């Protein structure tokens, strides 16, 4: 496969044209060469785009993906570094799951308190939200909801 136009590269990589342009602006892929007056992408760049996309799919941020790419290009780099980064990502995912479970419990608590009928002035959901101390949840779990990274 030779060099590809941006449209064909996007199709082969499974992304949109704007995604490729975004990756260029972010420095994740190099600026393309200009062949016959239009930009072309090498098969190596298309493979890099696929790598970036796959890293995003499994939860790595673009910054983390850039670190992975830098590590990948380093001869003699140790796989243990990548493994540790992946373990760290798993811990972040577990934290997000725990946060989502707290949110779900809070939502279930306010929904359970709602009779499901009547005027809004007596709405138990609105009252719970108004009366809730900052950072707490009406679910009985005293752990405050906090933002993850």
UniProtKB/TrEMBL annotation:
Name the coiled-coil region(s).
83-110
Q: Which SUPFAM superfamilies match?
A: Putative DNA-binding domain
Pfam families named in the record? MerR (PF00376), MerR-DNA-bind (PF09278)
Keywords, A to Z, come to: Coiled coil, DNA-binding, Repressor, Transcription, Transcription regulation
- Where is each HTH merR-type domain found? 1-71
Q: Is Signal included in the keywords of this UniProt record?
A: no
Q: What is this protein called?
A: Mercuric resistance operon regulatory protein
Origin organism of this chain? Methylobacterium isbiliense
Lineage runs: Bacteria, Pseudomonadati, Pseudomonadota, Alphaproteobacteria, Hyphomicrobiales
